[in-house]
Amino acid sequence: MKAIIIYYTKTGHTLDAARDIAAGMEKNKVTPEIKNSKEIKYGELAGYDLILVGSPCHEGSTAPLRSGIARPLELFLKSIPKGFLQGKSAAAFSVNAGLGAKNTVKSLEKLLKQAGAVVVYSPGPAVRAGIPLSLWRGPDYNSKDKDKLQRFGSEITKNK
Ligand SMILES: Cc1cc2nc3c(=O)[nH]c(=O)nc-3n(C[C@H](O)[C@H](O)[C@H](O)COP(=O)(O)O)c2cc1C
């Protein structure tokens, strides 16, 4: 199984989450690529069976007014033509400082479905780290959330 984790981050917490998810996947001998949404074009997704997307919650507490997805990742997902991800498995995760990551996950899952992917684990994990406007790096997520992310990684790759 070829897997990729696409993320956006401002202060590093979402990249940490991507790495913990990858550690969970490694337990099933799946080594995902981890890429910033700014470094990838949608056409490259054709080469993967499993696509994970992770975003910090940006204004997710104001849903449904906002999607809660960080703008660069949202633009990337919206650049994927409808149906392009047909036959692919996908899932989403998010990090927030307080409130809203569940909305971000829901919005990410919606865009994945619009692109044609099958969301194989829903809702994906929402964990808590950072500070409200990400002016600087805040506290890391706790060990319970770390376990949650790793378990998510192994769950979605167990039937590879
Ligand atoms: C523009 C902006 C909007 C944000 N909105 C929210 C929010 O609605 N709820 C929340 O809990 N955190 C919010 N945050 C904080 C981030 O979700 C949090 O700090 C997260 O850990 C940052 O992840 P990162 O280090 O991967 O960038 C916001 C941050 C920014 C920059």
Explain what this protein looks like in three dimensions:
The chain is α/β, with parallel strands linked by helices. It has a single domain (3-155), classed as Rossmann fold, CATH 3.40.50. The chain is built from four helices and six strands. It has helices at 13-26, 71-78, 101-114, 143-155, and strands at 3-7, 33-36, 50-56, 89-96, 118-119, 126-128. Strands 1, 2, 3, 4, 5 and 6 form a six-stranded parallel β-sheet that branches. The longest helix is centred in the first third of the chain and has 14 residues, at 13-26. It is globular and about 35 Å long. The model has no long low-confidence stretch (mean pLDDT 96). It binds flavin mononucleotide. Flavin mononucleotide binds at residues 9-14, 56-61, 95-100, 129-134, 138.
The largest β sheet comes out as: 6 strands, parallel
Structural Rg: 14 Å
Q: Bound compounds, please?
A: flavin mononucleotide
Could you say how many structural domains there are in total?
A: 1
Q: Which architecture name does CATH use?
A: 3-Layer(aba) Sandwich
CATH T-level fold name: Rossmann fold
